[in-house]
Structure formats: structure tokens, C-alpha cells
Amino acid sequence: MNDSRFTRMSSAFAMTCRVEVTIQASADVVWRLLTDAEGFPRWNSTVTGIEGAIREGERLKLHVPGTNRTFTPRVSGVVPARRMVWSDGVPLVFRGVRTFELTPQTHGSTDFVMEERFSGLIFALAKGTLPGFQPILETYPNDLKRAAERVAPERGGETGIPGRG
Q: Which helix (H) or strand (E) element contains residue 21?
């Protein structure tokens, strides 16, 4: 079931895609999934593996299905259980910035927003040949939603992940 809301804004040198979903789990549960590099491929069908630790200042090696290309975003702007940014590329040439935001709600759910911004001269020249980003950007938060909602009841609403203490 696709519960996410997708929007896209474009200009000559940039494109921003945003996807939002409400997850019936605490922000702590969602955050633990988002920052567990080893466990990522178990819940996220858009990733086959992550090398590195998902924490402030770290450079990740991100492997995705269907390509041999490795993405190498740097993690920054980390506010535990609230926000983080993954970014890669060269400003003004080609840059990708993915922002994750979690907003806890009073009834125990979490509003999750993932925004991806592509920009630069190379982006402007190549944007007509790039694949559609909507399917993959909707799959990611929907996978996260399923995993977090499966974890939350198993832990009785606690903030852990089974087998992770």
C-alpha cells in the first residue's frame, strides 16, 4: 500500500523531490532504522548495502539495486530522532542532497519527510536523460513505514529494534 505523498519542483538548474508519510511508530524507532547501516538492506528495498556508520561527518558507500555505481554521501546535520542530511557531489557542477526529517506527534506517530535536491550545471544538461525519481523516492519511506510499524508493536511501543537491545 502506498501511503506517501510525493511532490516535485524544478527549475533550469535544480530539482527538488519531496515525499511525506505518517508512520505509526515513535521517532526513536524510525531513527534507529534510519541509522542502522548494517540492517538497512533488511527493510529498504532501494538499498543492497551500506558501508560505514550513519553518523555525523561519516562518508558512506551506498549500493543500490540495478547498478554497479556506488554513491558516497557524507552524513551531516544530525539531530538524533529529528533530522540528518546525506550529500554528495560538487557544488555548481552536480550535487545531490537528501534530507531526512522526523516530527514526533502527540499520539505516538511520526511524520517523516525525505527531500532530495539535485542541482548544478551537469544536472541541467542531463536532467532530460535521468530516470523518474518518484517510484524510488516513494518506495523508500513506504519500506521504512512498514518496518517501523512492524517493530513498534513487537517492542510494546518501546524505542528499540528486536535483537538490538
A: strand 14-23
